[in-house]
Write a structure and sequence with these properties.
Peptide chain release factor 3; 30 strands; alpha+beta; RF3_C; 7-stranded mixed β-sheet; binds guanosine-5',3'-tetraphosphate; 525 residues; nucleotide-binding; GTP-binding; PrfC
């Protein structure tokens, strides 16, 4: 690819993830997007994968047992001249650090909210990570075919709970059984929920934002309420501000119903038009790297092991930050300086694994790995070494004590533990007093995967004793006094030797802060 071709290819890329609370409708909406992209022909394909009936699946054994996807995958399709990459963020019981790390590899996020429930816990956590990156966040208020909360409340909640301005791009005309359609403020039209007799789906609005009086609107009162809401939004609501949107300070809000495929394509069209193409990446030394830099480089944001139990392979997911990836190219692993040839690459589609021939900045490639890569690693093809900024650490919330079941097998226990921790599969801490091993995770499944892999890959059976959920807070080593530790705030050190307390609950943490007002407690992301 020459320079212009690379620029054109990068400009086409739209790489994003969906953040939501379980059951808000992420799977359903993803499926609709894949339908529009022509990746799947029938609704039900993605859901079938989720429920374990997916014929072509070759996911790791634990995934098959549970019928859920353990780690995120990537779906790619073309829509209106753009190449869309959707990075899946595991959300149910499979919520893990991978979910967070995936958000480091996207250029935008889509937040799906159940309009009957509003903003829920997991959405809040994921939002925090995305917000910190300062990337655009688009909101889809789902399940409009059911009675939900007042749309004005939902918009207000964005600001109250998340601290982001909401700008309603369209507005529901009724809800549940009374859903008439969507009032599109920007395209100046009404999108009917069901086509009218003439089969029209879109009705134009006049300069005053009103429908032609001759249009048959089944429920006048709903239409009048909509006009009242729109007047209120125009007068007292937020002004649309693209600059704020791009910085993640304002979120364009779209309403719809993923299940009945209403408002989803409108959302997709607007998203594709507004979402950014890949932009510069900040490197560890503070320099900025252009996505159209001619030399290929990228970073590993996830390593998935044993996707195919027959092959015991691992796949390192690389987000391309700059240049073009070509099969068979030589790259250098920045951390070790080792040069390797990238012969075996895969790309993940919704329902098949295809070998990638070439990909550019914004795309994700999966590289077969025999143990070379670690999460956060950079690879580059040019002469100049490239090191992407380190991935942030996340604060684990769940903890377990772990020991080897068979004391004679300490060696494989330590080896497995060391490798899995290095890979970023789980966090490891040691207690100060007794040097016990404590594992930390953001989701329960990380423990299960850990146990499974210790057994299967390192032949080490482990015993895990739950400590439960804890609030982890780091403190400055100079302020540490081991006497500060009690049963309610377990003192441990992380891999780097930095001390932290695992507080039993908020109450224990406040008690500690009252007792030691000078000690500064800090969290990771
Ligand atoms: P998730 O991936 O975010 O966890 O959510 P998912 O899409 O699986 O949706 C969760 C439930 O909500 C599903 O129902 C799904 O059919 C339903 N749903 C999604 N979008 C809409 C919508 O726009 N309107 C309505 N009314 N429901 C919606 P389920 O009964 O749990 O699963 P299923 O039996 O339908 O598969």
């Amino acid at each position: 690819m020459n320079k212009q071709e690379l620029q054109a290819a990068v400009d086409k890329r739209r790489t994003f993830a969906i953040i939501s609370h379980p059951d808000a409708g992420k799977t359903t909406i993803t499926e609709q997007l894949l339908l529009f992209g022509g990746v799947i022909r029938e609704a039900g394909t993605v859901k079938a994968k989720k429920s374990g009936h997916f014929a072509k699946s070759d996911w790791m054994a634990i995934e098959q047992q549970r019928g859920i996807s353990v780690t995120s995958s990537v779906m790619q399709f073309d829509y209106q001249g753009k190449r869309i990459n959707i990075l899946d963020t595991p959300g149910h019981e499979d919520f893990s650090e991978d979910t967070y790390r995936t958000l480091m590899a996207v250029d935008a996020a889509v937040m799906v909210i159940d309009s009957a429930k509003g903003i829920e816990a997991q959405t809040k956590k994921l939002f925090k990570v995305v917000k910190q990156r300062g990337i655009p966040i688009f909101t889809f208020m789902n399940k409009l075919d059911r009675d939900g909360r007042e749309p004005l409340d939902l918009i207000a909640e964005l600001e109250e709970l998340l601290g982001i301005e909401g700008y309603a791009m369209n507005w529901p005309m009724g809800m549940g059984k009374g859903l008439l359609g969507l009032y599109d403020r920007r395209a100046k039209q009404v999108e009917l929920y069901r086509e009218n007799e003439a089969g029209e789906r879109f009705l134009p609005l006049d300069a005053d934002g009103k429908l032609d009086p001759s249009e048959p609107i089944s429920q006048e009162s709903i239409y009048r309420d909509t006009l009242d809401d729109i007047a209120l939004l125009n007068d007292a609501g937020n002004q649309f501000d693209l600059k704020k949107v791009m910085q993640g300070d304002q979120t364009p809000v779209f309403f719809g119903s993923a299940l009945t495929n209403f408002g989803v394509e409108t959302f997709l069209k607007n998203f594709v038009a507004m979402a950014p193409a890949p932009s510069e990446h900040v490197l560890e030394d503070g320099r900025k790297l252009s996505p159209v830099d001619p030399n290929f480089s990228g970073f590993v944001f996830k390593i998935q092991a044993n996707m195919n139990p027959n092959h015991r392979d691992r796949i390192a997911f690389v987000r391309i930050g700059a240049g073009e990836f070509e099969r068979g190219m030589d790259v250098t692993l920045t951390r070790t300086g080792k040069v390797m040839r990238l012969n075996n690459s895969t790309e993940f589609m919704a329902n098949s694994r295809e070998t990638v021939e070439s990909a550019v900045a914004g795309d994700i490639v999966g590289l077969y790995d025999t143990g070379n890569f670690q999460i956060g690693d950079s690879i580059f093809a040019g002469k100049e070494p490239v090191e992407y900024a380190k991935l942030p650490q996340f604060t684990p919330e769940l903890f377990m004590r772990v020991t080897a079941k068979n004391v004679m097998k300490q060696k494989s226990f330590h080896k497995g533990m060391q490798q899995l921790v290095q890979e970023g599969a789980i966090q490891l801490y040691r207690t100060y007093s007794t040097d016990d091993y404590i594992l930390g995770a953001v989701g329960q499944l990380q423990f299960e995967v850990f146990k499974f892999r210790m057994q299967n890959e390192y032949n080490s059976e482990v015993v895990m004793t739950p400590i439960g959920s804890r609030i982890a807070r780091w403190i400055d080593e100079t302020q540490l006094d081991e006497k500060m530790s009690s049963s309610r705030n377990l003192l441990v050190k992380d891999l780097a030797g930095a001390p932290l307390f695992l507080f039993e609950n908020q109450y224990a943490m406040r008690w500690f802060q009252d007792k030691y007002p000078d000690v500064r407690l800090t969290a990771k992301l």
